[in-house]
# Entry
Amino acid sequence: MTKSKKIKLPEITKSLRKISTIFRYGLKALELVWKTSPVLTIAIAFFTIICGLLPAAIAYVGKLIVDSVVLASQNGTLANRNLALSYVGLEALILVILAACQKGLNVSQSLLRVLLGQRVNVLILEKALTLELSHFEDSDFYDKLTQARSQASSRPLSLIGRIFGLGQSALTLLTFSGLLLNFSLWAVVVLVFAAIPSFIAETKFSEHAFRLFRWRSPETRQQHYIETLLSREDYAKEVQLYQLGAMLLQRYRDIFDRLYTEDRNLTIQKGIWGYLLGLLSTIAFYAAYAWIVIEAIAGKISLGEMTMYLVVFRQGQSTFASALTSIGGMYEDNLYLANLYEFLEKPIPKSQGYITQGLKPDGIRFENVSFYYPDSQQPVLNGISLHLKHGEKLAIVGENGSGKTTLIKLLTRLYSPSSGRILLDGVDLKDWDLDILRQRIGVIFQNFVQYQFIVGENVGVGDVERMDDAQKWEVASEKGMAKSFIDHMPQGFQTQLGRWFKGGQELSGGQWQKIALSRAFMRSQADILVLDEPTAAMDAEAEMNIFNHFRTITKDQMVVLISHRFSTVRMADQIIVMADGKIIEKGSHEQLLQANGRYAHLFSIQAAGYQ
# Structure
């Protein structure tokens, strides 16, 4: 017996400690629910109170019905029969009110669930907008984002629903206890302690389920990724041609099998323990049942009181078990909400820049700039120094992995240098107001986004404040040399692009790149144009035409161009050659040819290919 206590007491103590953590996020969840809809929150509270009070009233009226029926059967007077029928009518009325309250509670919760799911998702997306590019490239942080989005939209309402449900159960138990105390204090004690083992099991398995949820986030993302590969049109060509379908589907099944095995084991364990511990509650009920029957046979209580006590004990036991289960569920909800708020409240350093105008027209300067990715000992950029004046064109060449695109991301403040500094018109980039800085930059990345929007919006996103300006669409697409094929499209700038939506038109790779170039020209106020392989999908002649045109219309703008085609970069005022994150050569096309170094070697190889 002593050994049994040593085993059980720590479990009870541990469960009680868990109870103390349950309400940690209760106030935050309540605040969130209230801000989502005060009217529905009040409605849920009102219906919960009424639903909590009426069961005891129904049990008591049931006792009155039985006693009045016994009395009427003994003397048969009309008054006693009418009294019994009036009690039946009263119970029916209470049941109608209870059903209305329960339906009102369900409707209110359903409406609030939709609104709350939207609000939480918006909060997550708003947080995502404050993140830096490095956060999205961090797999651990991306797991947190996935976890926050997966179930957290339903958990705040679940927690509030359980809190209100707990309040309803407390009201019901309070009224039931008042009725049971007239029979015996020990009946209340038995009612309470019979439900505790089930509660211990509930909290234990809730914690285990949450640990599985956190551990499996990477595998869940792998499943979603494979679903995307198998169901998106932009992957379908390669999946079919390389016959990847069966392999990917098998991986999908393997991941599911691993996750299902964990869920199955947890479900079976929870079911077995729930059944065994539930037997204790059943034994306690029938012991109380026998006790109440013996008291009725002895004439100590009436038949109506016996009926009422049995109903109260049965419903009280169910209500108390439900209350403890709600507490266990609240503990689980609390774990998920902790995960949500861990994401929402993660401190994200905000840009402290406030400068909106440069000190002098000095252009762009990189001063001994180096950059390391987090947890990497190898620099991606090492000691980069260069100067680009207003109106000058800079071309960057080098092999893949030499640091070209990373340099662009530093210039556009997607990353910050690990050491050194970058100046624009004499002001460090970190001191510029970030919105003002980015308004000065028009950019097209090699892996630019192909928006499933209409043509005009695909161009317009380059300047979101003037996104719907049709006149600017015309001007930008003319500069990007896209207007000629846009004019021949079924609905011109109103033509839907992509295949996701009805009537969508697909473009060639070269046409998409011209759309992206036009997007960069939407920012008419931008004096810095950044082009990362902007014509990779075009043929050599089309590329030459674009850059002859491009040089003409960007006379007053600074241009940073990354390209592997030397016929293009030779038009730049300045060319830098990168390797292993360093600038190994710098100069004009003619100067670099005379130097007979890496650039000259690469140029000669490429030139030979056209002979």
